[in-house]
Amino acid sequence: MDRIYFDNAATTPLLPEVRKAMIEVMDLHYGNPSSIHYFGRNARSIIEENRKLIASHLNCSPSCIIFTSGGTEASNLILSTAIQNHGVQHIITSQIEHPCILNSLKEYTKKGISIDYINVDENHCYDVMHLDELLKKQSKKTMVCLMHVNNEIGSINDLLTIANLSSKYNSLYFADTTQSIGFIPLNTQLCPIDFCIGSAHKFHGPKGVGFAYLKKPSETHPIIYGGGQERGLRSGTENLIGIAGMGAALDYMSKHSDQISQKLVDLNHLFRSQLNLLKVQPEWINKKENSISKILTLRFPNFRNSDLLVLNLDIHGIAVSGGSACSSGAEKSSHVMEYIFPDTNGKIVRFSFSFLNTKDEVENSISVLQKILQ
Ligand SMILES: Cc1ncc(COP(=O)(O)O)c(C=O)c1O
Fold first, then answer.
1. Is the whole model's pTM more than 0.90, yes or no?
2. Tens-digit pLDDT profile for residues 257-280
3. For the chain, does the N or the C end have fewer beta carbons within 10 angstroms?
4. What tens digit of pLDDT does each residue of 54-80 get?
5. Is 326 a catalytic residue?
6. Which ligand 1 atom sits nearest the alpha carbon of residue 150?
7. Could you tell me the CATH superfamily of domain 4-12+257-373?
8. Residues having CB within 6 Å of any atom of ligand 1
9. What is the 3-state secondary structure (H, E, C) of the chain?
């Protein structure tokens, strides 16, 4: 059976170009980047080249980029930095953030950090008027912690407005950009964010590598101590192969951004128009106007729960998600869907595309859906 992978918001396949870059590093540059000899210097230069490359994507100094094991570690590093170094005592976030934010914040509330949750509007975007009100009434040192693109419903939030509002009230802003890096350009000189994060496996790079952007890296509070790598901000021998893969992936995404965007728009459009042909009509969850094309979330009212549909699709060779990857396998449905649709527990399925998917795959999956739903 030919399998179709429509779960690219969970993770993406590695690009051949990325694999090639990683294999080259594996074969040739095996030195420890902290060693001072030839092999070490070679390895070091690969790390610094990739740091520069990522920094150029964000239009920031390379010193603002710290390599991590992924988005989760990067967000933990940022929260620790904001609280320990910047004296943040209050966080404004939302109920639809990734668990790497929400679960860390749960721990910080035990240590006296207070939290406000911003409202989400009918487009599943943050209510910026509410953000203004929350910021206005806050007297404690505050950080706004709101994502750019939601990983479950694909809504794109207005980073610039949130960043400007945050700085208007002298608050820090941490943008979880895990789903947008590689897809939506971000210029940190034009958009005044203090922190953001990236994770290579979301943009066709390897798993287990990512980065944190810190506007003021000298004020970072490490969460991993050891040999003092990453200027003492993140100890542990660097994941050289992963870092090379992440750089190659981001480079590819940016060099081909127009074609990639167009392909994703076309796939999304085709999927939507083909869905209209189904006898049993699903409900659109994300709005076309303010959603990223790679994520299409649907509600199938005739199915008792989404897992059944996810399972049925998988039996027919189509991989989709009934929530975020972090909650799959567990009985619990997605916290995002529970918050947005308190009465539609577990009937929602996320299709997420990559530019490697084809129109045939979309058409085949619609035929399968037709079969399953009849
Ligand atoms: C929005 C968002 N933030 C953070 C993460 C965590 O990234 P990582 O898998 O690299 O830890 C993810 C991954 O699913 C995500 O989608």
1. yes
2. 999 999 999 999 999 999 888 887
3. N
4. 999 999 999 999 999 999 999 999 999
5. yes
6. 1
7. Aspartate Aminotransferase, domain 1 (3.90.1150.10)
8. 70-72, 98, 100, 147, 151, 176, 178-179, 199, 210, 325
9. CCCEECECCCCCCCCHHHHHHHHHHHHHCCCCCCCCCHHHHHHHHHHHHHHHHHHHHHCCCHHHEEEECCHHHHHHHHHHHHHHCCCCCEEEECCCCCHHHHHHHHHHHHCCCEEEECCECCCCCECHHHHHHHHHCCCCCEEEEEECECCCCCEECCHHHHHHHHHHCCCEEEEECCCCCCCCCCCCCCCCCCEEEEEHHHHCCCCCCEEEEECCHHHCCCCCCCCCCHHHCCCCCCCHHHHHHHHHHHHHHHHCHHHHHHHHHHHHHHHHHHHCCCCCCCEECCCCCCECCCEEEEECCCCCCHHHHHHHHHHCCEECECCCHHHCCCCCCCHHHHHHCCCCCCCEEEEECCCCCCHHHHHHHHHHHHHHHC
